[in-house]
Amino acid sequence: MTEFKEQNLAGARFEESTLRDAVFHDVDLAGATFDNVDLSGATIRGARLVDVTLDGEIRNLKVWGIDVLPLIDAELNRRYPGRERMRPANADGYREAWDLLEQLWGETVAKARRLRPELLHESVDGEWSFIETLRHLVFATDAWVRRAVLGEPAPWDPLDLPHDEMHDTPPVPRDRAARPSLDEVLVLRAQRMAIVRALLANLTDERLPERTTPVAGPGYPASESYVVSDCLDTVLGEEFEHRRYAERDLATLAARTVGAGS
Question: Mean pLDDT, the chain, as a whole number?
């Protein structure tokens, strides 16, 4: 076992490394950044958690012995009306959720159009720009609807943008340098949203628990069988959460514009 004791590792970078079952005792992690890390089963005691931000896939999180997720979930639903509708129980619920998403995204795009076009390529606090967010949602539809559910082996457009944590997976494109216009990306978005709308129009309750037929060829997601409802839930979650992030960042950009003009 490698042991680091009384050593100064400030500013060190651990990338694609395994620290599974490691023990951190009397360690200073102030200001540390944990990005795309697996903390499943971690136990933290005697911690000083002040001004900490935690995002990601969080389940069974106990603070002082209390599962706080139901409390957080209820608060998020209160703050963001419609969020509770993103886990439908039947086919009609999926159609209602998609109708709401189309309405919400229409409002968000209208806000984006009021900003200078170059701001839509600007990152806020290291997050994706508005254009990159739309490109990622095109990718999400291509991956989980066109490939996983509809069985298209390679549904990608050159502007598809996978999540950063995904390793390069040919033939899936990943052009971070592309700078398409808002209108160019919205054409792709409209096409993909129409595909989802058509799929949901014919969706039945019986289809939801069925498993997809594995698609041939490399790509993302992997060539496996998936539960149809899981695929659709992924798309709904991506659409709702990325719209929430986009609203947050557009507000920041709009405030900067007002400040610069005053």
Answer: 92
